[in-house]
Amino acid sequence: MSADGQQARWLAIVGIGEDGIEGLTPAARALVANAKLVIGGKRHIALADGLPTGELKAWSSPIAESIPGILAHRGEPVAVLASGDPYCFGIGAMLSAHVPVGETICVPAPSSLSLACARLGWALDEVTAVSLCGRPIEALAPSLQPRRRLLVLSADAMTPAAVARHLGARGFERSTLHVLEALGGPRERIRTTTADRYGLNDVEALNLIAVEVEASTDARIIPLASGLPDDIFEHDGQITKREIRAVTLSSLAPRAGELLWDIGCGSGSVAIEWLLRHQANQAIGIERDSVRAARAARNAAELGVPRLEVATEDARTVLDTLPVPDAVFIGGGGEPAVIEHCWKSLKLGGHIVANAVTLDTERALFAAQSQFGGTLTRLSVERLDTIGGKQAFRPAMTVTQWSAVKP
Q1: DSSP string covering 71-82, please?
Q2: In angstroms, rounded to a whole number, what is the distance separating the alpha carbons of residues 242 and 279?
Q3: Are the C-beta atoms of 196 and 230 separated by less than 8 Å?
Q4: Beta bridge partner(s), residue 57
């Protein structure tokens, strides 16, 4: 304890680059040299060779299993070695979940993102960073916007080839790829190619890919607007149609980091668009039909949000087991009991939206509006069609929407 009763800063989180101890500041060197325990990846420990005097430990697999060992040394000097900036896609955030920031001191080195931008002459604040460490390649899809620049953190030596294949499959084969290896060290290497001509077979495991996105005329670009085209989803007709979906997302009013329940999710279109609004958003789709549930999961992966959770259950039996939602969408199964349960589960200030096309469900929405407040809106869409060789507007089924905010 310090003189004012605060816990001393016993945990040092030190960023180390490929230049090893030569790149460390005097303060960082002292923290590592004087630590009773130094923990890091095998590569980090090798980079710091000759500096630590205390016990050396490599991370367990999974890394989380090493946390109790670190906490067991609370109050003693411990140093964690990390790549570059520990709080840039690094170990820092995990450690902060277990150790108050007031008990830590962090000495970052330049991140691989900063080094990549420095080598390429890119503005770091104008690029999109995507990590594929422990994430599927499909997570790239939402970021593939024409004429944008991406920095992609690789999981291993095979990631650049996988990225090139993914770009080609989605119509971005003319995109330029810069493969940057072992940045900041003596083995640093930068090579440039295009997705359709990629042929590098000797890439270092430590690498990242800088992508200059170029779309072909038939590229599968995910628009940034709500109300994606219906045919972008695989569906059997059980889908909230484009125009209605746009209004539904507007009524749900997604905000960063919020959780949505999508009840009767069908193709998953509403939950998927919710997730596309922000990378921190979460969604759980409830769909009792296993074929539709599997289809929703495929759609989520194809559109770059594989984090969609799909529960193949009846809503009436599963809702009690789910985390508390920030918003609820009821696209199917709008029984009064389900609506009431969702209202009670919803966080204060949360949004609930339910759509109905049948009279039975519509009556349930009128009752919900009477009991809980909110607004009722009827939404009608007509599309141009050919009837008997002539053109006319054919009306789709009218949708009644109930929308409310829990006060």
Answers
A1: HTTTTS-EEEEE
A2: 22
A3: no
A4: 39
Q: Are 258 and 281 in contact (CB under 8 A)?
A: yes
H-only helix segments in 216-288: 242-252, 269-277
Number of neighbours of residue 222 by Cβ within 10 angstroms: 20
Cα angle value 109/114/116 (rounded, 5°): 120
Alpha carbon distance 115, 118 (integer Å):
5
With beta carbons less than 8 A apart as the criterion, state whether 249 and 273 touch: yes
Q: How far is CA 24 from CA 21, 108, 109, 224, in A?
A: 5, 9, 8, 42
Which string of DSSP letters, residue by residue, matches 183-216?
A: TTSTT-EEEEEEGGG-------SSEEEEEE----
Full pLDDT tens readout for the chain, 407 residues: 544 445 689 999 999 999 999 999 999 999 999 999 999 999 999 999 999 999 999 999 999 999 999 999 999 999 999 999 999 999 999 999 999 999 999 999 999 999 999 999 999 999 999 999 989 999 999 999 999 999 999 999 999 999 999 999 999 999 999 999 999 999 999 999 999 999 999 999 999 999 999 999 999 999 999 999 999 999 998 899 999 999 999 999 999 999 999 999 999 999 999 999 999 999 999 999 999 999 999 999 999 999 999 999 988 889 999 999 999 999 966 789 999 999 999 999 999 999 999 998 999 999 999 999 999 999 999 999 998 889 999 998 899 999 999 99
What pTM, to 2 d.p., does this model score? 0.89
Q: Is residue 293 exposed (0-12), middle (13-18) or buried (19+ Cβ within 10 Å)?
A: buried
